[in-house]
Each structure stands twice: as C-alpha cells, then as structure tokens.
Amino acid sequence: MHQTTIKNIVRCTGIGLHGGKQVELVLRPAPEDTGILFALRSGSGTSFLSPKPRMVVDTGLATSLGNGHDHIATVEHLLAAVRGLGIDNIRIEVQGRELPIMDGSAASFVYLLNQAGVRRQNKARKVLAITKPLSFERDGKFVKAYPHNGFMVDYTIQFAHPLIGRQNLCLEITPDVFATDIAKARTFGFLREVEYLHANGLALGGNLDNAVVLDEFGVLNTDGLRYPDEFVRHKLLDFVGDMAVMGLPLQGRFEVFASGHALNNSFLRYIEDNALEYLEERTLALPEVAPVFAPEKTSAPQPACGGLHRQPAMA
Predict the structure, then answer these.
(1) I need a labelling partner for 226 at 20 to 30 A (CA). Which of 177, 184, 198, 236 fits?
(2) Is 90 helix (H, G, I), strand (E, B) or coil?
(3) 3-state DSSP call for residue 195?
(4) Residue 195: Cβ within 10 Å count
(5) For the chain, where are the alpha helices, taking DSSP H only?
C-alpha cells in the first residue's frame, strides 16, 4: 500500500472553540515520510509540531499539542479526518492557537480534504501494529487492543441521561466508512456545563451551531440529531483523532469503554513506553504490478476496439 498526501492546497477560516476568535487554516501536500506536520504561524515566525503522545499538553475540553514554547488546541477532529481518509503526509498551517471548531464534527474537514484530492506517493505506507492483546484501565474505563489487520473500533459509552444511556458502535474504519458513518457526528455537552464554562471565560466559541447541547431531558438544537446514536459516533470520531497523535497509523482492533481524551492519551503513552512488547513498525506491501511483455510481431497492426480510433491520452 502506497503512502498518500493531498493533491492541492486548500484553506478555510472558522471560529476557535476556546477563544471564540477567527482562525485561518491552510492544508498543503507534504513529501513521503513527513507524517502529520503542524506549522504554527505567528508574528514572530513559524514553528513546527509533529504529533507525539507526550506532546499532548491538555485534554480538558479537547486535545491540545505543545512543545513548551508553542501549542495548538482542538486538533482531534482534523486529525480524525486525515487519518480516517487514509492520508499519511500533510502540512497543516494554522494562524492562531487552535483549530476552527467548524460545526463540531469532522465533516467540514472531510469536505476540504476531498476538495484537495488525495494523491498516491511512491513509498510504501508504514504502520504501528499491535502485536499482542493488552488492556489499559482506569476508574472502570478502559481501552483494550488486539492484533488486527486493519483499524477496527468497538466503542461503548454510558451516560445517565434519558436520551443517551448506553450506546455501542463497532466499525472497521475505512475512508468510506469514516466519511459516511462517523465524520458528521458532532461534539456534545450538557447545558449546565456550557453555562459554567461561559461564565468562567471558557469555550467562548461554543454554541448550538457547533455542538449538540442537552438539558435534563432532551436536545436543545432545533435540527435535532444527525444520527440516533450521534453521541457514541462522536466519541469514536474523537478516538480516531486521538490515536493519530501516535505519528504513524495504528493497526489493530480496539475495544473502548467510556474513554475520553485523557484516557486515550494515557493509553498511547503506555504503549509507547512498552513499544517493544506491544508494537511493531511494519511497511505494508505495495500492490504487485503485472509484468509488461513485448508484443508479438504481426504482419499488420490490429485495430483496437473494433476498428474505432481513440485520441491519445494527454500527459
């Protein structure tokens, strides 16, 4: 399987969840073996961040990356779109300290990436494969991982709310599945929490246009839910994005219960610390190309397609 990047440069602007300010985002193609690279632009120049588990500096309201000097918040939805669509190498330029929240899902990022197009590169894709079963648990919540030739997630959530309760979803994540079944699921929160955050100067960009908000009985958004189980779908989306912080794509089957950004990152740090026991870097085989044979000599050229003439393809 070949590595991929995007074909064209695409850009957008949007509002940041935390500061409520406009953010500019530019997505650019990147060479083989670049991985996911953030370029943070400011008045003093450009600094670069390549996601790694220990570069996650905050998991309170979202996943934030930092290197001691610079940081970028709310990266998980874009990372989920990049990894969900099978893109290996990309440069993400950000003017601001967080990514735009858009509509609270990954759908806008999927649209941007589809507008850019995906281009196959020459080198083979590298992955980090789970080599033996493991279970990472804290306070009754857990992430379990098993060897698997692909990326499968079996996710369960449980909330004491009449509209949520216990929800489960198990999917093999492919570009089509991610775009159709996961990308449109929005982040969600409870009215009492939103009011508290706003009162304390937090989540200033959060509103009914970019989150599902629930009171004690139901959804406050006039358009309702996009899926009957939108809540577990969004948690699965977050998990895909949080796993992308590993750098190389993970290969395995993951059983997850009631996890969030903090536990997701703790799980990544654990398997990174114990990589010799649980992980193996693999280079995926490139598709075989059929051998090209010289045509046999004939006395006269044979017409193609029943004698129809075709225009030569332009390079």
Answers:
(1) 198
(2) strand
(3) helix
(4) 11
(5) 76-84, 107-116, 175-177, 191-199, 230-243, 261-273, 275-278
How far apart (Å, rounded) are the C-alpha atoms in residues 144 and 62? Answer: 22
Q: Is 122 left (phi over 0), alpha (psi -120 to 50) or beta?
A: alpha
- What are the tokens at 178? 């991610």
Residues 6+ apart with CB under 8 A from 81: 106, 109, 110, 113, 178, 183, 241
Out of 71, 77, 234, 261, the active site residue is 261
CA-based max dimension of the chain:
87
The verdict on whether 77 is a catalytic residue reads no
User: What's the 3-state SS for 133-176?
Assistant: CEEEEECCEEEEEECCCCEEEEEEEEECCCCCEEEEEEEECCHH
Confidence of residue 204 (pLDDT cuts 50, 70, 90): low
Copy the structure tokens of residue 134: 């493991």
For the stretch 219-253, pLDDT in tens is 999 999 999 999 999 999 999 999 999 989 999 99
Q: Give the separation between CA 128 and CA 282, rounded to whole angstroms.
A: 6
Q: Is the pLDDT of residue 308 over 80?
A: no
User: Cα 135 vs. chain centroid, distance in angstroms?
Assistant: 23
Tokens describing residue 300:
């006269």
